[in-house]
Amino acid sequence: MAKTTLLGVHLAALALGVAVTGAATAAPSAATTTTTSTTTTAAAAGPDLSVTNTQAHLTQLQSIANANGGNRGTGRPGYAASVSWVKGKLDAAGWTTTVQSFSTSSGTSSNLIAEWPAGDPNHVVMLGGHLDSVANGAGINDNGSGSAGVLEAALAYAASGQTAKNRVRVAFWGAEELGLLGSKHYMSTLPTADKDRIEAYLNVDMIGSPNPGYFVYNDNPAGNGARDELTSWYASKGIPWEYIDVQGRSDHAAFRSYGIPTAGIFSGAESLKTSSQAQKWGGTAGRAFDPCYHSSCDTTSNINVTALDRGVDVIGHMLWLYAAKDFGTAPQPGGNLLQNPGFESGAVSWTGTAGPITNNSGRPARTGTWKAWLGGNGSTSTETVQQSVAIPSTATSATLSFWLRSDTAETGSTVYDTMRVQVVDGSTTSTLATYSNVGTSTTWSQKTFDVTAYRGKTATVRFLLSEDSSLQTSFVVDDTSLATS
């Protein structure tokens, strides 16, 4: 799990199964919602994968670290040896593997990608987690646990005799601890047509925290289908869970930025378990979910076997479920039709005025580091950020949403500066909302609009800024979505 100024969080992308003893949330600053309620999604039966095998994988990763300076960090022999060992296991099981190398400030790193040679290549489902450790430890919970879980699920699937309806792909990312570099490199170099074939990505990172908890990603509106499968699985096992907004600080962010549905789970990192969490999950209140997070004591003795067992079972559940899922031929309900919706790939897929899509730290992004910052000039200006999207005629509904914060140097109740939210359909422009210097708020709030009327059309979503010559007003937009059902 990469650490950031807001606490790094890498959640395990497949739900855990059964109550856990606690987990460190690497992003305690993110809003969380606690619930034990069930969802309407039926939890499909999944396999009971071997925790003994999974522990054996962790023992091997520990041995690799011991033989290579005590770590498996990017650019170091321990990481290369980890990739070689995992690749050998997958090759022997019949997976088709590819090693994708790339450069980092710490030396050469690589992603290991494995694909099951069956299933429809036009419908790809992916699971993954990072294989690298930090420089000062073996990284057995972070993220040997997630890597071992994905590996065991892949090996079990190969031996199961299952017939895959969809193409299953698993990934072991490099240089995650340096800023999600491996997953970002993979997505930035993947052809657009291949990106479009990915139906969902499920991220697995830290599933064996010694004082564990059960957290489900809730930071991607486009990924709610997989999210609901995870919470449904928990509910079917009678396990309390909590939503967590990881704010893009895990490998799923590279997929989310291209509009691909993502989801994940997390057993916790350096944050402290609360009393209420200890009451429902067990473990110790006031103690970190993982006291050895990013430390040399993150060894095989830093694993809660019950949490690991439940985590690998969730991974198996999601692999079996999504390998057989019927995605049909049309875009799936809930999928985000907007590309690069969080702007994390810069201006990719968006058009309009050069400059507003930025990672300038003068105004914060809601998630990640990029956003659309419109205005803030203090001079007469007009700016646009827009994207055209085809809304399927088969959709029963279509919803446009985005997050907005704003601030101004203007005073009083006179409108000087505005940002309009528009939909352009051919020669017709409809304004859904107008925001101005009056009533600005630096607190992020989500705005939602019904755009079902545009079914069967290619419409352009536009954010239009008009600023006058006096004092500045800034409108910051992030995490956009145009979802259908």
From TrEMBL:
<dbReference type="GO" id="GO:0004177">
    <property type="term" value="F:aminopeptidase activity"/>
</dbReference>
<dbReference type="GO" id="GO:0006508">
    <property type="term" value="P:proteolysis"/>
</dbReference>
<dbReference type="InterPro" id="IPR041756">
    <property type="entry name" value="M28_SGAP-like"/>
</dbReference>
<dbReference type="InterPro" id="IPR045175">
    <property type="entry name" value="M28_fam"/>
</dbReference>
<dbReference type="Pfam" id="PF04389">
    <property type="entry name" value="Peptidase_M28"/>
</dbReference>
<keyword id="KW-0862">Zinc</keyword>
<keyword id="KW-0732">Signal</keyword>
<feature type="domain" description="Peptidase M28">
    <location>
        <begin position="111"/>
        <end position="316"/>
    </location>
</feature>
<protein>
    <submittedName>
        <fullName>Hydrolase</fullName>
    </submittedName>
</protein>
<feature type="signal peptide">
    <location>
        <begin position="1"/>
        <end position="26"/>
    </location>
</feature>
<comment type="similarity">
    <text>Belongs to the peptidase M28 family. M28A subfamily.</text>
</comment>
<dbReference type="InterPro" id="IPR007484">
    <property type="entry name" value="Peptidase_M28"/>
</dbReference>
<dbReference type="GO" id="GO:0046872">
    <property type="term" value="F:metal ion binding"/>
</dbReference>
<keyword id="KW-0479">Metal-binding</keyword>
<dbReference type="GO" id="GO:0008235">
    <property type="term" value="F:metalloexopeptidase activity"/>
</dbReference>
<keyword id="KW-0645">Protease</keyword>
<keyword id="KW-0378">Hydrolase</keyword>
